[in-house]
Amino acid sequence: MRLLVVEDEEDLVDALRVGLARAGYAVDVAYDAPAAQEKLQVNTYDLVLLDLNLPGGDGFQLCRAVRAAGNGVRIIMVTARDRLDDRVRGLDEGADDYLVKPFAFPELLARVRALLRRDTGGTSVLEVGELRIDTARMEVSLGGRALALTPKEYGVLHYLMTRPGHVVSSEELLEHVWDEHTDPFTSTVRVTVGNLRRKLQEDGLIETVISRGYRLREPA
Length: 220
Ligand code: CA
Description:
CATH topology of the largest domain: Rossmann fold
Strand content: 15-25%
Oligomer: single chain
Helix content: 25-40%
Number of strands: 14
Structural class: alpha/beta
Radius of gyration: 18 Å
Number of helices: 8
Largest sheet: 5 strands, parallel
CATH architecture of the largest domain: 3-Layer(aba) Sandwich
Order of helices and strands: EHEHEEEHEHEHEEEEHEHHEE
Bound molecules: calcium ion
Number of domains: 2
CATH class of the largest domain: Alpha Beta
Distance between the termini: 27 Å
Strand order of the largest sheet: 2-1-3-6-7
Protein backbone atom coordinates (compact mmCIF):
# COMPACT_ATOMS: atom_id res chain seq x y z
CA MET A 1 0.00 0.00 0.00
CA ARG A 2 1.28 3.41 -0.94
CA LEU A 3 0.74 6.50 1.18
CA LEU A 4 1.23 10.19 0.55
CA VAL A 5 2.31 12.21 3.59
CA VAL A 6 1.47 15.90 3.13
CA GLU A 7 3.29 17.66 5.94
CA ASP A 8 5.75 20.54 6.30
CA GLU A 9 7.26 19.66 9.70
CA GLU A 10 10.42 17.85 8.72
CA ASP A 11 10.94 16.04 12.02
CA LEU A 12 7.43 14.64 11.88
CA VAL A 13 7.88 13.67 8.22
CA ASP A 14 11.09 11.79 9.05
CA ALA A 15 9.43 9.92 11.91
CA LEU A 16 6.38 9.05 9.81
CA ARG A 17 8.51 7.90 6.91
CA VAL A 18 10.51 5.51 9.08
CA GLY A 19 7.54 4.20 11.07
CA LEU A 20 5.28 3.69 8.06
CA ALA A 21 8.01 1.99 6.02
CA ARG A 22 8.61 -0.37 8.92
CA ALA A 23 4.90 -1.17 8.88
CA GLY A 24 5.19 -2.19 5.22
CA TYR A 25 3.91 0.96 3.50
CA ALA A 26 5.54 2.78 0.61
CA VAL A 27 5.68 6.47 1.47
CA ASP A 28 5.87 9.57 -0.73
CA VAL A 29 6.13 13.02 0.84
CA ALA A 30 4.84 16.43 -0.23
CA TYR A 31 6.03 19.39 1.85
CA ASP A 32 3.51 21.90 0.50
CA ALA A 33 0.06 22.03 -1.09
CA PRO A 34 1.13 22.47 -4.75
CA ALA A 35 3.52 19.50 -4.52
CA ALA A 36 0.75 17.41 -2.97
CA GLN A 37 -1.65 18.33 -5.75
CA GLU A 38 0.92 17.41 -8.40
CA LYS A 39 1.70 14.04 -6.82
CA LEU A 40 -1.98 13.22 -6.45
CA GLN A 41 -2.45 13.83 -10.16
CA VAL A 42 0.54 11.73 -11.23
CA ASN A 43 0.50 8.83 -8.77
CA THR A 44 -2.09 6.46 -7.37
CA TYR A 45 -2.24 6.41 -3.58
CA ASP A 46 -4.11 4.14 -1.23
CA LEU A 47 -4.24 6.77 1.51
CA VAL A 48 -3.21 10.37 2.22
CA LEU A 49 -2.14 11.81 5.57
CA LEU A 50 -2.98 15.46 5.24
CA ASP A 51 -1.74 18.28 7.45
CA LEU A 52 -4.01 21.32 7.56
CA ASN A 53 -1.58 24.23 7.82
CA LEU A 54 0.61 23.98 4.75
CA PRO A 55 2.80 26.33 2.76
CA GLY A 56 1.03 27.32 -0.46
CA GLY A 57 -2.49 26.44 0.62
CA ASP A 58 -4.43 24.69 3.32
CA GLY A 59 -5.53 21.10 3.77
CA PHE A 60 -9.23 21.95 3.56
CA GLN A 61 -8.79 23.42 0.06
CA LEU A 62 -6.63 20.52 -1.00
CA CYS A 63 -9.16 18.00 0.25
CA ARG A 64 -11.96 19.75 -1.58
CA ALA A 65 -9.93 19.88 -4.81
CA VAL A 66 -9.13 16.16 -4.58
CA ARG A 67 -12.80 15.26 -4.18
CA ALA A 68 -13.87 17.70 -6.90
CA ALA A 69 -11.47 15.89 -9.25
CA GLY A 70 -13.34 12.65 -8.51
CA ASN A 71 -10.45 11.16 -6.53
CA GLY A 72 -11.81 8.88 -3.79
CA VAL A 73 -8.47 8.23 -2.09
CA ARG A 74 -8.72 7.71 1.69
CA ILE A 75 -7.73 10.87 3.55
CA ILE A 76 -6.81 11.27 7.21
CA MET A 77 -6.41 14.87 8.30
CA VAL A 78 -3.63 15.22 10.82
CA THR A 79 -3.49 18.56 12.54
CA ALA A 80 -2.88 20.52 15.72
CA ARG A 81 -6.26 22.23 15.28
CA ASP A 82 -8.50 20.44 17.70
CA ARG A 83 -11.57 22.69 17.63
CA LEU A 84 -14.81 20.93 17.03
CA ASP A 85 -15.69 23.08 14.00
CA ASP A 86 -12.33 22.26 12.36
CA ARG A 87 -12.91 18.55 12.83
CA VAL A 88 -16.44 18.80 11.50
CA ARG A 89 -15.30 20.91 8.55
CA GLY A 90 -12.50 18.45 7.74
CA LEU A 91 -14.91 15.55 7.55
CA ASP A 92 -17.41 17.63 5.57
CA GLU A 93 -14.72 18.60 3.05
CA GLY A 94 -14.24 14.91 2.31
CA ALA A 95 -11.72 13.58 4.83
CA ASP A 96 -12.39 10.03 6.03
CA ASP A 97 -10.86 10.55 9.44
CA TYR A 98 -9.30 13.26 11.60
CA LEU A 99 -6.40 12.89 14.02
CA VAL A 100 -5.25 15.63 16.40
CA LYS A 101 -1.54 16.30 17.01
CA PRO A 102 0.26 15.27 19.09
CA PHE A 103 -0.83 11.70 18.46
CA ALA A 104 0.58 8.32 19.38
CA PHE A 105 2.04 6.53 16.37
CA PRO A 106 0.26 3.21 17.11
CA GLU A 107 -3.05 5.07 16.95
CA LEU A 108 -2.17 6.57 13.58
CA LEU A 109 -1.24 3.10 12.29
CA ALA A 110 -4.48 1.62 13.60
CA ARG A 111 -6.50 4.35 11.86
CA VAL A 112 -4.60 3.78 8.61
CA ARG A 113 -5.30 0.05 8.84
CA ALA A 114 -8.96 0.66 9.67
CA LEU A 115 -9.46 2.80 6.56
CA LEU A 116 -7.54 0.44 4.27
CA ARG A 117 -9.58 -2.49 5.59
CA ARG A 118 -12.67 -1.02 3.96
CA ASP A 119 -11.31 -2.33 0.67
CA THR A 120 -11.39 -5.87 2.02
CA GLY A 121 -14.81 -5.91 3.63
CA GLY A 122 -13.69 -4.64 7.04
CA THR A 123 -11.61 -7.61 8.08
CA SER A 124 -7.95 -7.41 9.09
CA VAL A 125 -7.32 -11.05 8.18
CA LEU A 126 -7.12 -12.04 4.52
CA GLU A 127 -7.20 -15.66 3.45
CA VAL A 128 -6.67 -17.08 -0.01
CA GLY A 129 -6.45 -20.86 0.02
CA GLU A 130 -3.75 -21.81 2.50
CA LEU A 131 -2.33 -18.28 2.57
CA ARG A 132 -3.23 -16.07 5.49
CA ILE A 133 -2.28 -12.48 6.27
CA ASP A 134 -3.07 -10.76 9.53
CA THR A 135 -2.69 -7.11 8.56
CA ALA A 136 -2.95 -5.84 12.13
CA ARG A 137 0.02 -7.94 13.21
CA MET A 138 1.79 -8.10 9.83
CA GLU A 139 1.89 -11.88 10.15
CA VAL A 140 1.84 -14.15 7.13
CA SER A 141 1.43 -17.90 7.06
CA LEU A 142 0.99 -20.61 4.45
CA GLY A 143 -0.73 -23.78 5.57
CA GLY A 144 -0.04 -22.80 9.19
CA ARG A 145 3.68 -22.26 8.54
CA ALA A 146 4.76 -18.71 9.50
CA LEU A 147 6.67 -16.80 6.83
CA ALA A 148 9.26 -14.12 7.55
CA LEU A 149 8.85 -11.54 4.77
CA THR A 150 10.56 -8.22 4.11
CA PRO A 151 8.24 -5.17 4.00
CA LYS A 152 8.30 -5.21 0.17
CA GLU A 153 7.59 -8.94 -0.06
CA TYR A 154 4.76 -8.41 2.40
CA GLY A 155 3.47 -5.47 0.34
CA VAL A 156 3.47 -7.47 -2.90
CA LEU A 157 1.75 -10.48 -1.34
CA HIS A 158 -0.82 -8.31 0.40
CA TYR A 159 -1.61 -6.52 -2.85
CA LEU A 160 -1.97 -9.80 -4.75
CA MET A 161 -4.12 -11.27 -1.98
CA THR A 162 -6.62 -8.43 -2.31
CA ARG A 163 -6.99 -9.42 -6.00
CA PRO A 164 -6.79 -13.21 -6.20
CA GLY A 165 -7.19 -14.61 -9.71
CA HIS A 166 -6.58 -11.20 -11.29
CA VAL A 167 -3.52 -10.31 -13.32
CA VAL A 168 -1.55 -7.50 -11.69
CA SER A 169 1.10 -5.81 -13.80
CA SER A 170 4.60 -4.93 -12.62
CA GLU A 171 3.72 -1.27 -13.09
CA GLU A 172 0.72 -1.63 -10.79
CA LEU A 173 2.85 -3.32 -8.14
CA LEU A 174 5.50 -0.59 -8.46
CA GLU A 175 2.79 2.04 -8.12
CA HIS A 176 1.29 0.55 -4.96
CA VAL A 177 4.21 -1.05 -3.14
CA TRP A 178 7.21 1.12 -3.99
CA ASP A 179 7.69 4.86 -3.55
CA GLU A 180 8.36 7.61 -6.05
CA HIS A 181 12.13 7.21 -5.84
CA THR A 182 12.04 3.81 -7.51
CA ASP A 183 13.31 3.66 -11.07
CA PRO A 184 10.33 2.45 -13.17
CA PHE A 185 12.66 0.35 -15.33
CA THR A 186 14.20 -1.53 -12.45
CA SER A 187 13.93 -5.29 -12.02
CA THR A 188 13.02 -4.82 -8.36
CA VAL A 189 9.48 -6.22 -8.80
CA ARG A 190 10.75 -9.35 -10.54
CA VAL A 191 13.44 -9.87 -7.90
CA THR A 192 10.97 -9.36 -5.04
CA VAL A 193 8.43 -11.77 -6.55
CA GLY A 194 11.25 -14.31 -7.02
CA ASN A 195 12.24 -14.04 -3.36
CA LEU A 196 8.61 -14.28 -2.31
CA ARG A 197 8.13 -17.47 -4.33
CA ARG A 198 11.22 -18.96 -2.72
CA LYS A 199 9.83 -18.25 0.74
CA LEU A 200 6.41 -19.62 -0.17
CA GLN A 201 8.14 -22.77 -1.44
CA GLU A 202 5.29 -23.18 -3.87
CA ASP A 203 6.17 -22.27 -7.42
CA GLY A 204 2.67 -22.18 -8.88
CA LEU A 205 1.08 -19.98 -6.23
CA ILE A 206 2.15 -16.73 -7.88
CA GLU A 207 1.85 -17.29 -11.60
CA THR A 208 3.67 -15.26 -14.22
CA VAL A 209 1.34 -14.22 -17.01
CA ILE A 210 3.68 -13.55 -19.91
CA SER A 211 3.97 -9.86 -20.82
CA ARG A 212 1.04 -8.98 -18.52
CA GLY A 213 2.18 -9.51 -14.96
CA TYR A 214 1.46 -11.77 -12.01
CA ARG A 215 -1.56 -13.59 -10.70
CA LEU A 216 -2.19 -15.18 -7.34
CA ARG A 217 -3.73 -18.57 -7.94
CA GLU A 218 -7.21 -18.90 -6.52
CA PRO A 219 -7.91 -21.98 -4.43
CA ALA A 220 -9.53 -24.75 -6.42
CA1 CA B 1 1.91 22.28 9.11
